[in-house]
Design a protein that fits this description.
The complex is a heterodimer of chains A (518) and B (841).
Chain A lengths: L20 H7 L5 E4 L4 E6 L7 E5 L2 E5 L6 E5 L6 E6 L5 E6 L4 E5 L5 E5 L6 E6 L5 E6 L4 E5 L5 E5 L6 E6 L6 E6 L3 E6 L4 E7 L6 E4 L5 E6 L2 E6 L5 E6 L6 E7 L4 E6 L3 E5 L5 E6 L4 E6 L5 E6 L3 E6 L3 H13 L31 H7 L3 H8 L2 H6 L1 H14 L2 H5 L4 H14 L6 H15 L7 H38 L12 H10 L1
Antiparallel strand pairs in A: 1-28, 2-3, 3-4, 4-5, 6-7, 7-8, 8-9, 10-11, 11-12, 12-13, 14-15, 15-16, 16-17, 18-19, 19-20, 20-21, 22-23, 23-24, 24-25, 26-27, 27-28
Chain B lengths: L1 H7 L5 E5 L11 E2 L5 E6 L2 E6 L5 E6 L5 E7 L2 E9 L3 E6 L4 E7 L4 E5 L7 E7 L9 E7 L7 E3 L3 E8 L6 E3 L5 E6 L2 E6 L4 E6 L12 E6 L5 E6 L3 E6 L8 E6 L5 E6 L5 E6 L4 E5 L6 E4 L6 E6 L6 E5 L3 E6 L3 E7 L12 E2 L6 E4 L4 E6 L4 E7 L15 E7 L5 E8 L7 E10 L4 E8 L7 E6 L7 E6 L3 E7 L12 E7 L6 E6 L6 E5 L2 E6 L4 E7 L5 E6 L7 E6 L3 E6 L4 E7 L2 E6 L6 E7 L2 E7 L6 E9 L5 E6 L17 E6 L5 E6 H19 L4 H17 L4 H20 L8 H12 L5 H20 L6 H15 L8 H24 L2
Parallel strand pairs in B: 9-13
Antiparallel strand pairs in B: 1-57, 2-3, 3-4, 4-5, 6-7, 7-8, 8-9, 10-11, 11-12, 12-14, 15-16, 16-17, 17-18, 19-20, 20-21, 21-22, 23-24, 24-25, 25-26, 27-28, 28-29, 29-30, 31-32, 32-33, 33-34, 35-36, 36-37, 37-38, 39-40, 40-41, 41-42, 43-44, 44-45, 45-46, 47-48, 48-49, 49-50, 51-52, 52-53, 53-54, ...
Helix pairs in contact in B: 6-7
The chains are: A alpha+beta (518), B alpha+beta (841).
Pfam families (chain A): UTP15_C, WD40
GO biological process, one term (chain A): rRNA processing
Protein name (chain A): U3 small nucleolar RNA-associated protein 15 homolog
């Protein structure tokens, strides 16, 4: 005796984004937390030491936030003009920032007070950073020069004026304390060595460079500018590895996720894109405004995005452990221990296991189909929650009933409420190209069955009226589609040189509509 | 050209033989007394299956036409009668598969009934029909003549009823064989043997509710005077008191919603089993009203139900060539599955490249894998994956197309429904072979592959890329590839459409890839288009009007530059693809063109003047290698070359095309036929003989002892003087063989046999006497056969003489009656043994 085969619910391919591990990973962030700053957020940087505080440079202040605080734990407001490029020292104890007035200030995180001021730049300093030894600061300025300062003595150690336009990006090497990279609006990226006193490498980005980024190994360099993100191989003498063009406006910022080896870029087009190690976009965040700055915590727990409208958007990663704890407790059931005897017995290696025959679990409508209760099966497939969330179940049951030749029986003899339910369903899904064919037969049968009694019920009459309008609209739409299709066909035909070679397939949507119109 | 050539080739030693997979559901199966064996008719033989293991044990072969009925000999439960359309009734020992007797009746027989009360009488179903239109069936009884001959003519037929239903399940014997009931259309007749009187009962054709009352089957309660009849509308009527003309009564049971196909009472008469199209076996409790058990979803509508004599086992035979064994607790305990051909085979015949099994559509919605070598059903692959509703007149999904790729790692199937009605639904499914489960797993299901039904499809035959091409009635052909769809960004291992092609909006009919997959030929009515699958460029078109292209096939190996095509207007064309010109053509009505995958040969089945001829040829030359006239009388639409397990070294030139692979074809009667060579048959025979000898000598301690003894004797004898000892050696071995070869249950009691056996082992002192005795024995037996029962004295004296001669000291004097008894025992035995000895030299 064969077991009953349940009706097979057809799964339809989900169009759009494909679910991969990456999307799951990047989707596991909580909804963004919005913090209003005083002006456009130009720079965000995380401290490399836990608890990974982050410094946010906006307008004339630099705020330092803790990982879970919405209020700044520290704020540095001693700027006369707009502050730029607040960045931490490697040990997270000092913070350096440039400003519109050309003065570079050095702060102690603990004491709030300014420790040093480096004066010498004649124009705004947009990029500042500590070199990896922690004793020197490098700065890039709009006066076309970049300078190296000594922290202890606050004197200028060296100055490079090789760029011919504003310098807007500086990135120090993490391994060599004498190397740093600058990016400028003169479309070039230069690698400087303090020891030689000049640039050792120059790369042509082709667009004004907004941001430069060195990989932790110093082997790869990322530069962003214009719509392009370019990756350079420093070990091969600055050869371009890839050029990515995934944004449709200027790419303003980039950062690296250290744990998952991903590159993130933010752009004025309001998107943050996540690239995997082979530089394919694996995920995309949307933001409310154009993005100026972007940073990710060293353990990926926070993604902070700064925007032109002065909003700092912070996304926290969902805490997995909490959830598991909760579900664990629920699963364990009551805490008392009775009748545990034998239940914790596991089979030994040589035991012969006799499995219980697995009981076939059937859905409600399948059970009713099995016992040939057709009307009930249709009712249970049209249950309220299924109707809205799983319309394919109801449609499959209708098709199955049609195959069995009992659809008419199932639809017949219904009262006003249940008939209205069916008509509601038809109204909702009859234009869906996936379901329209079986639902049209259902509609036909309903009309045949209830022709005489329709005037008795105003509810049903109203629904039918709506159905008529809907179908009329749909027919017009189909006609338009066909017209477009005809235009396209002529276009394709004129494109194809050899006519007898196959005509191109019409797009699937149009095909579906053709069917429906027929 | 072909026709002329045909005359030159004379008949060869290649025969058309029916091979495996004949119907086992033609007549009700019967279960042996000990419930160990189930017998069923299967084509021109009777097959014996084991009920426990469901294995096919052997078949009783001897009839020349369809066997139409089997029944156990009521006098001996180890013997079975079978009747056949060749006009004979044969009596078999079914355990050993020995033919005991043949009764020649003369006219074709359609069914056979026996009853315990009518010993020596069998009842047969004959066709009276001289005129074909209203063929009349009659039930006759015949006394089987008691003679010792192998073949006996039984001419004395006495008609019981001259007007019965052609359906053999409409006749049944009543309690204790007192009466026989038969139904025909709306009439139920009961014939009482003792009164020699027939009572007839009539039903109206329809009643008020529109029920159809025609009888479909009948069964009689073996312990009670009660007749159960099944009707077309699914009702079962239980008739009682039918030995009165007027006062008969009946009650009605109704569960089936379609015609009741079969009814069967359990031997105790407590339960009634019924089955119909619904594939549900219903067990009614007699006398308990409509109390019933049901056993649903047995698969295939039920044709026959039979119960074992002890009532512990039921056998249900189904329309899909299957016998279900149902044990006591009303549970299915076994399945015997034959090759399912049904009424139509919708798919082509295919060979699974991995298992080398024949694949075709089997039970509804499934593909069946059938091993031709072992003549055994391997498994069913569920294609439709939907509950099949067994109901008359329901249009459900059927597998209509299936095709394997070269390596057998992909299977493409098309299922459709609603071809008659307007709403056609069909699915194209692609199945991947899963190494771990060793079966096919659904990979992709495409719901609207084309806008109209798919006509043909084929896989590309190259090893590295698999591509499927489908042609459909929407005048397009489509190429499908794995993971080509960039729009949906699905995983790479799903199939999607790669290319859509058409040619002047003509309907494509056939498509085929060349052997190296570099060319695709698609026929559009009269035109053959040749495409390059790499660039999808139309390379050339070939056309040979008039007539649309029916079949297409590329030549293989050395003939790969040829493309063969057949048209509806009796033309077989061969194009040369290098010159793009017609190489040759011949006027031949080809119904099926099949290329051998292992050689250049192409087989063409041609239907002309009411019979089918076979031509085997190479595309390079327009002369056939081999022709076979009158292969069968119907059109052949399905054929397949099956690669052999091992290559045969054919000696004859004309048989060489059969060396690498064997050609199977399916007739319109759904018989699977093949061509077999003489050499092959010889080999089969010799192997079977060897097998028989091996089987017959069972390795028992007794045998080992004897064998050792004999070996010792041989060792002793061979060096000295073998010639002198030979007769004696033979004599002893013959008697041992007699003993060993006769089944234990037909041997007389051991006490009777013992003395004879011991005697046979004794070494007699004189060879002369031995010879004398043996000649005497022969004479004796001849006389015995001639003599009638009455004359006993003469033989008794002879018996005395011989007894004295051989065992005078050992046997004490027996009384006359005792001796007669012994004599009879030995006489019955003797024919057996001689038969045995003759058959096994």
């Amino acid at each position: 005796m064969a077991s009953f085969k349940p009706t097979r619910i057809q799964t339809y391919p989900k169009l759009g984004e494909k679910v991969t591990e990456d999307t799951l990973y990047w989707k596991s962030y909580k909804p963004a937390l919005q913090i209003k700053e005083f002006g456009a957020v130009t720079k965000i940087e995380f401290s490399s030491l836990p608890p990974h505080n982050y410094a946010v440079t906006a307008s004339t202040r630099i705020h330092v936030y803790g990982p879970h605080s919405q209020e700044p734990t520290r704020s540095f407001t001693r700027f006369r003009d707009t502050a730029y490029g607040g960045s931490f020292r490697g040990d997270g104890k000092l913070l350096v920032a440039g400003s519109e007035d050309g003065i570079i200030r050095l702060f102690d995180i603990k004491s709030l007070g300014a420790l040093r001021q480096f004066t010498g730049h004649s124009k705004a300093v947009h990029a500042t950073s500590f070199l990896s030894d922690g004793f020197r600061v490098v700065s890039g300025s709009d006066d076309l020069s970049c300078r190296v300062w000594d922290v202890a003595s606050s004197v200028e150690l060296s100055s490079f004026t090789e760029h011919t336009d504003y310098i807007r990006a500086v990135a120090p090497s993490k391994l060599n304390p004498d190397l740093f990279v600058t990016g400028s609006y003169d479309h070039t990226v230069k690698v400087f060595d303090v020891r030689t006193g000049s640039s050792v490498m120059t790369m042509q980005h082709g667009h004004p460079v907004e941001c430069v980024l060195l990989y932790p190994s110093d082997a790869l360099l990322v530069s962003t500018g214009g719509r392009y993100v370019k990756i350079w191989d420093l070990l091969k003498g600055g050869q371009q590895l890839v050029s990515l063009k995934n944004h449709h406006k200027t790419v303003t910022c980039a950062c690296l996720s250290s744990t998952s080896n991903k590159l993130l870029t933010g752009s004025l087009d309001r998107h943050v894109k996540v690239y995997n190690s082979s530089y394919k976009v694996v995920h995309n965040f949307d933001c409310a405004a154009s993005i100026l700055s972007l940073a990710i915590a060293p353990n990926d727990s926070i993604v902070a995005v700064g925007m032109t409208n002065g909003v700092l958007s912070v996304r926290h990663k969902k805490q997995k452990e909490e959830k598991e704890m909760l579900t664990d407790r629920r699963r364990r059931g009551p805490a008392y221990r009775v009748n545990v005897k034998g239940k914790n017995f596991g089979p030994k290696q040589y035991d012969f296991l006799v499995n219980k025959p697995a009981k076939q679990h059937l859905q409600k409508h399948d059970k009713q189909l099995k016992s040939f209760e057709v009307s009930k099966a249709l009712d249970s497939a049209l249950e309220a929650w299924k109707r809205s969330s799983k319309p394919e179940v109801a449609v499959v049951v209708m098709m199955e009933l049609n195959r069995r030749g009992t659809l008419k029986n199932a639809l017949a003899g219904r009262d006003e409420a249940s008939l209205a339910r069916i008509l509601d369903f038809l109204l909702k899904y009859i234009t869906d190209p996936r379901f329209s064919r079986p639902l049209l037969t259902v509609g036909d049968i309903v009309l045949d069955l209830y022709q005489q009694v329709i005037p008795q019920s105003p509810v049903v009459e109203r629904l039918l009226q709506r159905l008529l309008e809907l179908l009329g609209r749909e027919a017009e739409l189909q006609q338009e589609f066909l017209q477009v299709l005809g235009i396209l066909d002529t276009l394709f035909a004129s494109l194809n040189l050899r006519k007898d070679v196959a005509t191109l397939a019409a797009p699937p949507v149009a095909q579906g509509s053709q069917l429906q119109a027929a | 050209m072909f026709r002329e050539a045909k005359n030159m080739v004379e008949r060869s030693d290649i025969r058309v033989v029916r091979c495996g997979g004949s119907k086992i559901n033609f007549r009700p199966p019967i279960i042996s007394n000990d419930s160990r064996f189930v017998l069923c008719v299967s084509g021109d033989s009777v097959k014996v299956y084991s009920t426990r293991t469901e294995e096919w044990l052997h078949s009783l072969q001897g009839h020349t036409k369809q066997v139409t009925g089997i029944a156990f000999n009521p006098a001996n439960h180890l013997q079975v009668y079978s009747c056949s359309a060749d006009g004979t009734v044969k009596l078999w020992d079914f355990i050993d598969g020995i033919l005991i007797k043949t009764f020649i009746i003369g006219s074709p027989l359609f069914a056979l009934y026996v009853s315990k009360e009518h010993e020596g009488v069998i009842f047969l179903h004959l066709s009276k029909g001289t005129h074909h239109k209203n063929e009349c069936f009659q039930l006759v009884s015949t006394h089987l003549p008691k003679s010792a001959d192998q073949e006996v003519e039984a001419k004395e037929l006495s008609v019981v009823s001259s007007h019965i239903s052609p359906n053999p399940s409409c006749t049944a014997f009543g309690r204790g064989g007192e009466y026989i009931a038969f139904a025909r259309k709306l009439q139920l007749d009961v014939y009482f043997f003792r009164k020699q009187k027939t009572y007839s009962f009539y039903l109206k054709a329809t009643d008020k509710k529109g029920a159809k009352n025609a009888f479909t089957c009948i069964a009689c309660n073996p312990t009670d005077d009660c007749i159960a009849t099944g009707h077309e509308d699914g009702k079962i009527r239980l008739w009682r008191n039918f030995n009165h003309k007027k006062e008969y009564t009946y009650s009605t049971l109704h569960w089936h919603h379609n015609a009741v196909n079969t009814l069967c009472f359990t031997p105790e008469g407590t339960n009634l089993l019924s089955g119909g199209i619904e594939s549900v076996l219903v067990q009614w409790q007699c006398g308990a009203g409509s109390k019933k058990d049901v056993l649903p979803r047995l698969g295939g509508s039920i044709l026959h139900v039979s119960a074992s004599p002890d009532g512990q086992l039921f056998c249900v035979s189904h329309s899909d060539n299957k016998i279900t064994v149902i044990e006591d607790g009303f549970k299915v305990s076994g399945l015997i599955q034959g090759l399912v051909t049904g009424d139509t085979v919708l798919t082509d015949l295919m060979i699974d490249p991995r298992s080398k099994a024949l694949v075709l559509n089997g039970k509804p919605g499934h593909l069946q894998f059938y091993s031709l070598l072992r003549d055994k059903h391997l498994y069913n692959l569920d294609i439709v994956q939907q509950e099949y509703i067994y109901e008359a007149g329901l249009d459900q999904f059927e597998v209509v197309k299936a095709v394997f790729d070269v390596k057998g790692s992909w299977l493409a199937t098309v299922e459709e429904r609603g071809r008659e009605s307007s709403d056609l639904e069909f699915f194209l499914k692609l199945w991947a072979f899963d190494e771990t489960t060793q079966s096919f797993v659904l990979n992709t299901s495409i719901s609207a592959a084309h806008t109209d039904r798919i006509i043909s499809m084929c896989f590309s035959s190259s090893e590295e890329t698999t591509m499927l091409v489908t042609t459909a009635e929407d005048s397009q052909f489509k190429a499908w590839c794995q993971g080509a769809d960039a729009d949906t960004q699905q995983d790479q291992n799903f199939w999607s459409c790669d290319f859509v092609g058409s040619y002047h909006n003509l309907k494509p009919t056939n498509c085929t890839f060349s052997a190296d997959s570099s060319l695709l030929a698609v026929s559009f009515q009269e035109v053959v288009t040749v495409w390059s699958p790499d660039t999808w460029e139309l390379l050339t078109t070939l056309c040979q009007p008039p007539g649309q292209i029916r079949d297409l096939c590329f030549g293989r190996l050395s003939c790969s530059k040829y493309l063969l095509g057949t048209t509806t207007k009796n033309l077989l064309c061969c194009w040369n693809l290098l010159t793009c010109a017609l190489e040759w053509s011949t006027s031949l009505e080809v119904s099926k063109l099949q290329a051998d995958p292992l050689s250049e040969n192409v087989a063409a089945f041609s239907y002309q003047s009411k019979h089918t001829d076979l031509f085997v040829f190479k595309p390079s030359e327009p002369l056939p290698l081999f022709t076979h006239e009158k292969v069968c009388s119907e059109k052949v639409h399905r054929a397949i070359f099956v690669p052999r397990e091992e290559l045969l070294n054919g000696c004859d030139e004309r048989c060489q095309w059969l060396n690498g692979s064997q050609l199977y074809f399916l007739t319109q009667n759904m018989d699977l036929m093949t061509f077999s060579m003489a050499t092959e048959e010889d080999r089969m025979l010799s192997s079977s003989k060897r097998l028989v000898i091996d089987d017959s000598i069972a390795v028992t301690p007794f045998y080992l002892l004897l064998g050792k003894h004999r070996q010792q004797q041989q060792k002793l004898n061979t060096p000295s003087h073998p010639a002198a000892d030979k007769p004696q050696q033979k004599q002893s071995s013959v008697s041992i063989k007699q003993l060993l070869h006769t089944p234990a249950h037909v041997l007389p009691a051991a006490s009777v046999l013992c003395s004879m056996f011991v005697n046979s082992l004794l070494i007699s002192n004189t060879g002369v006497r031995e010879e004398m005795e043996s000649s005497e024995q022969e004479m004796d037996s001849e006389k015995e056969e001639e003599d009638s029962e009455g004359e006993m004295e003469t033989r008794d004296s002879q018996q005395d003489l011989r007894a004295q001669g051989s065992v005078d000291e050992v046997t004490p004097k027996l009384s006359k009656a005792q001796e007669r008894e012994l004599k009879r025992v030995r006489k019955t035995d003797f024919s057996w043994m001689t038969g045995l000895i003759v058959s096994k030299p």
